[in-house]
């Protein structure tokens, strides 16, 4: 997640959408006073090559929840401690943890992806360390208490989308370029590929992974995103 006071934008980071690559590229545009939340160590190494690393991610005391002081005394480092901005922080929480007038006035950018394609990518990410074959159908059917937490709910507040700029994974390079130019940057930092590919070549067509039942589960689970952005199977 990024709060750029110098460029007046916020990057709301969704999951499995190419977001880390965009985050690293946008970090290069930031100043020493901007907020850059920590990412994985090997990704930080890439970001540092562009001149930035995680910085200023402690929430100012005036914007911390009332219980954060107890967390600090106890030395808690979890995201739930209320003392730090973090990677996949939602718009709802972020607005409560910074000056809301600045949140409202800044450009807010996020990334969306076809949910059926994203689910396959998420499956291979979660099972990347497994030596045994994994069941995609079982993965889709897993019980989720808050399935939109890192998708629709991340860039909306009370069901209303607050992101002012939506980048699509399917046209990410073009959309990223357009957004950066809207900031007045004539020569955008090119996108890399921070995560790499965990999906086998034989699974490149996400449609081959589904049956009618799992296809419908994803449709119902991410209906708001599908309807809003016109995604189809």
TrEMBL record:
Annotated InterPro entries: P-loop_NTPase, Sulfotransferase
GO molecular function: sulfotransferase activity
One Gene Ontology CC term in the entry: membrane
Annotated signal sequence range: none
Superkingdom field: Bacteria
Protein's name according to its UniProt entry: Sulfotransferase family protein
């Amino acid at each position: 997640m990024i709060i750029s006071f110098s460029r007046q934008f916020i990057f709301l980071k969704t999951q499995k959408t190419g977001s880390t690559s965009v985050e690293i590229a946008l970090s290069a545009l930031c100043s020493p006073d901007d907020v850059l939340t920590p990412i994985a160590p090997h990704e930080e190494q890439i970001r540092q090559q562009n001149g930035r690393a995680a910085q200023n991610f402690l929430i100012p005391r005036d914007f911390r929840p009332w219980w954060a002081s107890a967390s600090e005394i106890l030395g808690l480092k979890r995201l739930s401690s209320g003392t730090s901005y973090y990677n996949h922080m939602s718009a709802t929480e972020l607005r409560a943890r910074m000056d809301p007038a600045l949140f409202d006035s800044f450009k807010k950018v996020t990334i969306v992806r076809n949910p059926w394609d994203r689910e396959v990518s998420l499956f291979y990410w979660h099972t990347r360390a497994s030596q045994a074959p994994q069941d995609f159908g079982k993965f889709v059917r897993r019980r989720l208490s808050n399935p939109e937490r890192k998708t629709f709910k991340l860039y909306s507040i009370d069901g209303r989308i607050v992101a002012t700029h939506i980048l699509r994974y399917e046209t990410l390079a073009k959309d990223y370029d357009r957004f950066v130019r809207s900031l007045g940057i004539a020569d955008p930092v090119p996108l890399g590929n921070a995560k790499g590919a965990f999906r086998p070549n034989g699974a490149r067509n996400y449609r081959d992974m589904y049956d009618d039942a799992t296809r419908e589960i994803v449709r119902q689970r991410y209906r708001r995103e599908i309807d809003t952005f016109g995604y189809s199977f």
